[in-house]
Amino acid sequence: MMMKIKTGIEGLDIMLGGGIPQGHTVAVIGSFGTGKTTFAMQYIWEGIKNGEKCIFISLEEDEKSIIESAKNFDWDFSSYMDKQLLLVKLDPEDAQSSINRIEAELPQIIREFGATRIAVDSVSLITMMLKEDEEKRRAVFLLSKSIKDSGATAIFTAEVDPKNPFMSREGIVEYVVDGVILLSFKEEANKLNLVLRVVKMRRTKHSREVKPYEITERGIKVLSESTVF
Question: Is residue 85 helix, strand or coil?
Fold first, then answer.
């Protein structure tokens, strides 16, 4: 029986039949304001609570900023630094250097730290800095392979394509990963509501319903009993 890894997001684990299959890489795709970084941090916090070793790889925020952001939800990252949590900052402006680190250093970092959960926020910043499609595909593939070879279960956040709200900006990451979760807005009665759907999740049954979710002071909560019309 396949082991499931709980995301720690209320309602989502129900939709996933218990969680993400162990060893999977999952893309969380959405536009700004949909809670992608919050999703990634919440996933890592769940691992910390369970005594797991976790790595948060950021291309957006530095260590201090990540710790402060987590603190807004009462997730005390600072108390677990270097014991259960490792924060790795990659420079999106130097894409080639970041790719070299992914290829040369990341597998060793994961292995030596013994991480079972990894979050990458966000892969879009790597691909946006590369010019050729082949370079972009290779960068995402290397990142995914480095993590999959380690056996860790990972979340990759990615920006949505402004012209197509159902795919990532580069249209690459969803073909490399095992699962895709799409975060988006739905306008109803002059109000923007947040909705989530599990687009794909290999080798496991999952809900295909579109569900509303909220970003609360305790993180993301999926209203799995509600229906979006």
Answer: strand
* Measured distance CA(152)–CA(111) in Å, rounded: 10
Each residue of 136-182: pLDDT tens digit?
898 899 889 989 999 999 999 999 998 998 899 989 999 999 999 99
pTM above 0.85, yes or no: yes
Burial label for 180, CB within 10 Å (0-12, 13-18, 19+), is buried
Residues 119-140: pLDDT tens digits?
999 999 888 878 888 988 988 9
Q: Look at strands 117-121 and 20-21 and give their pairing.
A: unpaired
Is the pLDDT confidence value at 11 over 90? yes
The helix/strand/coil state of 123 is coil
Say yes or no to pLDDT of 228 above 70. no
Q: How would you classify the pairing of strands 54-58 and 85-89?
A: parallel
Point out which residues pair with 119 in neighbouring strands: 56, 155
Q: What end-to-end distance do the CA atoms of the chain give, in Å?
A: 35
Of the candidates 38, 45, 54, 24, the one whose C-alpha atom is nearest the C-alpha of residue 198 is 24
**Which among 158, 174, 161, 217 has a CA at the least distance from the CA of 37?**
158
CA–CA dist 106, 37 (Å, integer): 21
Q: Which residues are CB-neighbours of 218 under 8 A, at least 6 positions away?
A: 73, 74
Cα–Cα distance, 26 to 12 (Å, whole number): 13
